[in-house]
Amino acid sequence: MVRPARLLSFTLCLSALAPAVVAQQSSGPPKKTAPKKTAAEIDPMAEMRRATAVSLVNTLADDARMFRDPVLRARVQARAADALWDTDRERARMLFRRAWDEAETADAEADKRVAEERQRQTRERGSFSLQLPPSLRTEVLRLVAKHDRALGEEFLAKLDESRKRETENAVTSGDRQPDAAPGGEQRRPDPLDTPPAIAKRLRLAIQLLQDGDAERALQFAEPALGAVTTPALEFLTRLRQKNAQAADERYAALVGRAALDPSSDANTGSLLASYLFTPTLYMTFTPDGGSSANSWGRDFPAPTDIAPPLRAAYFRTAASILLRPTPPPEQDRTSTGRAGWYMVIARLMPLFDQFAPDSSPALHAKMASLKPDMPYEMKLTDGSDVATRGIVPEDPNHDHVQDALNRLDHAKNSDERDAIYVDAIFSALQKKDPRVEEFLDKIEDTDLRQRVRAYVDFRATRAAVDDKDVNEVLRLARGSGLTSIQRAWALTEAARLLAKSDSPRAVALLDEALKEAKEHIDDSSPERVSALVAVATQLVELDRPRAWDVMLQVVKASNAAKDYTGEDGRINTRLETKNMTMRSSDGAQSFDLNDIFARLAREDLQRAIDLAHGFDGESPRAIATLAIARTVLEKGEKKQVRAASN
Fold it and tell me: What was the pLDDT predicted at 643?
């Protein structure tokens, strides 16, 4: 009982002394508040890492002036300027100007190549199909606009002047070359073929819209809104979400010009309908009755607030175009021909019946006059399902697979039967019908069967990855339909999906992907590098030491594959048959160097720098270096913000 008493008395003594201590403290001079620590004081090595990153970017920017590829020269200097903006704005402005000069040269060379290729294709086959190169000036301008409005306006003015000259040159040189029609006659090209100068102007305008600058976007797009093109309609659709009145006014003007233009044809009417009824889907039709569907997004539903006078103006124009006299076949200059003309009317008839019924009888009569020119197999189905896509809601109970199979009784030979089975396969694929394999086996042409199987298997793999169905991904990856790069990608994606729930199995799949890349992809192929990067990217979170080891293999493989760039990773698939061509291009971010080098730099900056310096190729070395530097600089900026707020 003695110890508790002593403890109590000691506590009472402390309590008695406490007021005196407080009084004594309050009577003394106030203490000065300690100054807040800077980011460098919190992390003494931060300033050194930041200085290293700045030095990396500056050295790379200077080296870029000597790069062999003009596209890379422009991109690297622009990205270097973007990275340096918060550190050295004068230096960044100078780099932006250098990048702009390089971009002007590169764009001019690219436009020249496009024009030459367009002329060659038109001369050799009467039509052309081109993928426009990127507009480097647009890329530079977007980066500049983030930082310096005045410099952005200066570059925009230069680009505007350049585009005006390009547009004038396109008009005077006949940029819209007519396609060849049957018999050597000339036919106006499909409206999907937009002159490069117009397409690039509208591409930039759309990007400005996406960046939130609707006013400048409209100013820049205005000169390119005089003709019915898909980029013009996409721009107006996007503009409508920000300024409906301005968009509707430009659309009304476009409709008015189309009514007066003698070169307008049925496809013009089909494209104009998209703004009102299918904003992201453009349907056009060919002289054999075939269709082309182009879609660019899902977040733009059909507008519900279209003014009745505007809608009525469209239907007046569409009817006037569709009811024009049908020229004799030898004088037909339309992009649709008679069969395509019929299909456009079939597509728009439900809309006319609903909104402009007074025109319906005349249009039905026009269809009747055109039907004799429809291909025999299309007369059987009337083409209505394809024609009304996006306009008439699809019946969920409708069996498109059976529709295709019903045509087998009318097939005259094995080629026609094979074509029907191809149609059935793609209908079955959309419905996840298990008979896909059965239909594949019935294709008699061995080469066609293999090509269709390869295309179908990758589309199914892509869908399984999106659905996070690991078992289905692995079933397809271990089948015979995929190429080696597709198989390696599928295995790494399956590993990504399993990383948190079953890491040992994920690592085993990455071993399998690594083996596929090493044993089945050529040493000098960029695909080998891409596959190795994908493996390393997934290993970072699962086995960091092995990720570093695989990256050493990446550097070695890249130095053997001279065409590997380190960015824009994609898997392209293509299926071409006698009756159709199907293409798809899927992004594969895990093929790119940016993400993996950013992660490695956070762990060991100097080791990541040494790894990047191992690349012989200018592009992968630049991509890796910029990824490392950005990781340091952006991390430093965030730390400074946090330190200032504490």
Answer: 43
Interatomic CA distance for residues 430 and 517, integer angstroms:
31
d(CA 342, CA 95): 56
Residues 6 or more apart whose Cβ sits within 8 Å of residue 160: 220
430, part of any domain: yes
pLDDT, residue 618, reads 97
Residue 263 φ/ψ, nearest 5 degrees: -85, -5
Q: In sequence order, what are the beta bridge partners of 167?
A: none
Residue 420, in any domain of the structure: yes
pLDDT value of residue 357: 96
**What is the pLDDT, as a whole number, of residue 216?**
81
Q: At what angle do helices 605-613 and 544-560 cross, to 10 degrees?
A: 20
427 domain residue, yes or no: yes
Number of folded domains in the chain? Answer: 1
Q: How many CB atoms lie within 10 A of CB 117?
A: 13
Q: What's the pTM value of the predicted model, to 2 decimals?
A: 0.71
Q: Please choose, from the candidates 128, 127, 138, the residue with its C-alpha nearest in 3D space to the C-alpha of residue 200.
A: 138
DSSP letter assigned to residue 521: S
Q: Give the domain range for residue 406.
A: 399-444
Q: CB under 8 Å to 218, separation ≥6 — which residues? A: 205, 239, 243, 246
Whether residue 432 lies inside any domain: the answer is: yes
- How far is the C-alpha of 173 from the C-alpha of 170, rounded, in Å? 5
Burial grade of 460 (CB within 10 A; 0-12, 13-18, 19 or more)? buried
3-state class of 571 per DSSP? strand
Distance of alpha carbon 350 from the chain centroid: 32
**Low pLDDT (below 50) residues in the chain:** 1-26, 171-185, 187, 637, 639-646
Helix (H) or strand (E) holding 581: strand 581-587
Residue 371 in tokens: 């039907």
State in Å, rounded, how far the first CA of the chain is from the last one: 51
What span, in angstroms and rounded, lies between the C-alpha atoms of 447 and 426?
18
Burial of 30 (0-12, 13-18, 19+ CB in 10 A): exposed
